[in-house]
């Protein structure tokens, strides 16, 4: 458990022209950059901060408002004020596993496998995956970046591929890696869409958020080198946790903007995000 942060009283100068709330905001910012305050850590109450800094609650409120606007702090009713985690930049370009993307960013990825079970899939999913029967194995994973819940991910796999996979090993290894080592399947390309949505109650609970919060939903259909669909993924992340980026060139195809009604690869919104047992 993270120890409570106790700020040091500030000696305010009357000659530097710096408002007290700005000096307090700088002190809190320094505590964040020095690691005294970490992502997700709750600050003392405004009354306690006012007493520690020797100022009024209104002055503390101004400092918190400034840091909220700078996206360093977040205040939620009933939860208090806490340090915001830095947004993870997810590039759209080279096809790679989330593990590879996070490793390249210098952060740490960990995974909790929540479910691995056969389910009945919709006609849309059956068609997307080119399966003979409306059956697939649903893999459900909660992915953490630097120990903070980041992505809730479901992956539909053809039963023949899933049969040889060890779900426990997927807590330590990427799905792409296991497909290659277990089946000799190397992923070659993927069709992916990203759309705005909101968190349902169960997804919000797992991600440590509130139901109804804005979120991003990624739907990715991944193909092997011979053009066969091998996994149909959906990934859900809080809207303020990630920035999607892409490098674009005038003479090259790539990222495109479509109306949701025109995009063929969007997830089937009539289905719950998770369906298998957990």
From TrEMBL:
Gene3D superfamilies xref list: Chorismate lyase-like, Winged helix-like DNA-binding domain superfamily/Winged helix DNA-binding domain
Claim: Transcription is one of the keywords in the record: yes
Entry keyword set: DNA-binding, Transcription, Transcription regulation
PROSITE patterns to which the protein is assigned, alphabetical: HTH_GNTR (PS50949)
Pfam families with a match to the protein in the record: GntR (PF00392), UTRA (PF07702)
Annotated protein name in UniProt: HTH gntR-type domain-containing protein
Signal peptide limits: none
SMART domains from the UniProt entry: HTH_GNTR, UTRA
GO molecular function, one term: DNA-binding transcription factor activity
